[in-house]
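User: Predict the complex.
Assistant: Input components as received:
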Amino acid sequence: MNPLGNIKTIAKRELRAYFASPVAYVFIVIFLLLNGFFTFMVGGFFERGEASLANSFFNWHPWFYLFLVPAVGMRLWADERRVGTLELLLTMPIAPWEAIVGKFIASWIFLGIALVLTFPIVITVNYLGSPDNGVILSGYVGSWLMAGAYLAVSCITSAITRSQVVSFIVSVVACLFLILAGFPPVINLLQGLTHNWQWLVDTITSFSVITHFEGFQKGVLDSRDIIFFLSVIVFSLFTTSVILRTHRTS
Amino acid sequence: MIKVENLTKLFGTKRAVDGVSFSVERGEVLGFLGPNGAGKSTTMRMITGFFPPSSGKITVGGFDILENPIPAKKLVGYLPENAPAYTDMTVHGFLDFTAEIRGLRGGAKKSAINRVVDLCFLQSVLHQNVDTLSKGYRHRACFAQSIIHDPDILVLDEPTDGLDPNQKHEIRQLIRQMGETKAIIFSTHILEEVDAVCTRAMIIDRGKMVANGTPAELRRKSEWAGAVSLRVNGVAAGVVQEKLNHLRAAKKVVVEVAPASRLCVSSVKETDRRDACATSALTVTVFPRTAGDGDLTREVIEATSGWEVEELRTEEGRLDEVFRSLTMPDTKIEIRNSKSEIRT
């Protein structure tokens, strides 16, 4: 069978598994509640008087994802190993990378569904003013790509361990690094520490999801930002495949 | 269909599988025996392509499992140890997924699912979630998964583990039936299963193959193979011992005093006890010098003529004893040390 068919079969199973358990609904409800609360109460959506979602809505996403995406990704491989179905999956006539990509895509689609369900905020802002919907769309694309990058990191940590809890904690820490590398207080601290070696600061901040997400928020679709997120995904999935292979050889 | 050459698997410095070679053809059911941790599961995991071997070569249906894994895996149905199944799906969903990943679509998929549901008696739990199933049903669901694409080769790791006697019987029958047209490897701890199902059996111990042959051939390796057991009445144990010990083909004679006669003499003084007992019913076993020697039976019949003998028979050999002597060599030495004994 062709790789695309295999990936589709695996992704379909995985997606179905999400919605068969309460995890999916709990996740979506929490994600939407957090979005509502932070946008209106903390982000001051009304007080700003801007017909835009950049500062009040998308700004929070890197932080929501920090906890929520590892929660989605932690079971991907850890559970498969714990239950023993990994043996079943990898003795099927499919290439391991097809399984890795299929499972990743399913979770990514799931995150996309949660993100799309925030659409009332788009309706609200369009009702109240006349925002640039192109910018909003680019914000959504960026947010989804960012979620994908976090998710791919969670895939690695999930493949490392049988325990979902360990997977969750490690991937939160790893994702935290991805955020903090571009967090202004941290940049200031780095500049102080390195006596303004700008190249070093730049290298570290270039790993930050926040710096790469900013462009999308402003409606700037920079190919470098897209490539950044995609390369984090590809690199992480590749690492996942290496880890899974090591488990089998030793 | 399956060819394994010099297969070795190292876990760290431990040799889980050490230089095992064998092959299985269509129409054969190979029983894989061995104590826990002998390397049965590891070997099966390598054949199915889950573990890559440390060294050695495996070809499945002519395809090298390392170089050409996908066409090789297509030919194989695999039931892993403990029968894992996706717990977050219904039985039907699980079978649907495995059928699809095996490349079955539409009508072919539907009829394949119906076929295995019938074969494995899953009708009553078809729309139940896998994690609510009892162990037996989960086992059968996973077994159904392994035969859904009607593979030429089946690798079954303890297929009857955790099943009740009826289910065991059904699964064994299924394996034997499928064995006529497929190549099957299955592992088990249950020695009767070897007789019931296998055309050939292989014993592995500490990663090494210690025996490989038909169940009858393995039995012939037993100390019991060709042993003659008989019951004698009214002859003293010492006399029986003496006479049978001198047979050319006999290696060892064990005389046991029947429990019933022990009761009748329980009041007799200890010193007289053995003789008093020994004149009543005795169970005698004569072991042959060379396993499976047919001469022994003839010699025993000649030697015992004139005695009151009931129930004389030649043993075929015992698989459990072969298994123990091959996998725990120490017990064998103990039997050989004494030439003869009288047990009361």
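Chain B has two domains: 2-220, 228-343.
Let me know if you want any component modeled separately.
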